[in-house]
Amino acid sequence: xxxxxxxxxxxxxxxxxxxxxxxxxxxxxxxxxxxxxxxxxxxxxxxxxxxxxxxxxxxxxxxxxxxxxxxxxxxxxxxxxxxxxxxxxxxxxxxxxxxxxxxxxxxxxxxxx
Amino acid sequence: xxxxxxxxxxxxxxxxxxxxxxxxxxxxxxxxxxxxxxxxxxxxxxxxxxxxxxxxxxxxxxxxxxxxxxxxxxxxxxxxxxxxxxxxxxxxxxxxxxxxxxxxxxxxxxxxxx
Lengths: 113, 114
Hints:
The structure holds two protein chains of two kinds.
Chain A (H helix, E strand, L loop, with lengths): L4 E3 L2 E4 L5 E6 L6 E8 L3 E9 L2 E4 L8 E7 L2 E6 L8 E8 L6 E3 L3 E5 L1
Parallel strand pairs in A: 2-11
Antiparallel strand pairs in A: 1-3, 3-8, 4-5, 4-9, 5-6, 7-8, 9-10, 9-11
Chain B lengths: L3 E4 L2 E5 L4 E7 L5 E7 L6 E6 L5 E4 L2 E5 L5 E6 L8 E8 L9 E3 L3 E6 L1
Parallel strand pairs in B: 2-11
Antiparallel strand pairs in B: 1-3, 3-8, 4-5, 4-9, 6-7, 7-8, 9-10, 9-11
């Protein structure tokens, strides 16, 4: 079975550029989570969706960050404009309807220069 | 926000030794999850705990949901080199407060010397 799929795996961009990270959750899962991982702050929840609807975006750092989930099999996290302090590993995770267990993707390592 | 205190931060052990790590919180949690993260990869779910006092094993790994519901423990018996990685606990507040939201500990970095 395919797990959570994220793309790209690595992204290097210059400050000010727009960055789009993509996620395909596990088929049949109805909740999707975006996390950011840094050495300083560990794993932080940015936003999560339930049945494609954003439920809690209190972790989104600022207006430069936005996330969408147009359908049950696809989500994007966009940063516009990007800044060096956005450099981190961004993870997507998904969860099924009848469980609390979240399954993580391999992550996207973002470097903003 | 909620804080999970995970300890120890890092461990250096000899192959074959047993390992213990724990997470504590000032809040009561409904669910505890334990993950392992290898370098360059996403966290992989090891064990899920749903009831206070629950003890669950997965091979050489055993995790417990503390009776107070404010802590959880992970033990690894007879460690091997492939146990190397970072172990995270994650706790979920009762549903009335936060339906899907998990709070993650800062991780325990395990090093195993062959």
